[in-house]
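Many introductory courses stop at the sequence. We go one step further.
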Amino acid sequence: MVTLDGSGSYDPDGDPLNYTWTWDGDTANGVNPMVELPLGTTTITLVVNDGIVDSEPDSVDVTVETTAPAPPMVPTMDKWGIVVMITLFAGLLVWMVRRRRFA
């Protein structure tokens, strides 16, 4: 998904604006529409209207590329995990020593 941004447009009279985005036969409306574009480069054109007059068209090329998949998550152990492991191991050793003493 790509978010388009027409927030830099303004009307000197302060009239409310209508935003029309066009590309490859598709359209979107609004100041910040989210659109899905195909892979590759797409030219998107914005025309803003104040209810009376259309602005001059403004165009931008947007390039959509594939990204490499994220590497698999590898569990890591932080310092508290190590402390817990050492504590459990020490407890096991103490239990084993006491068990031999009383057996």
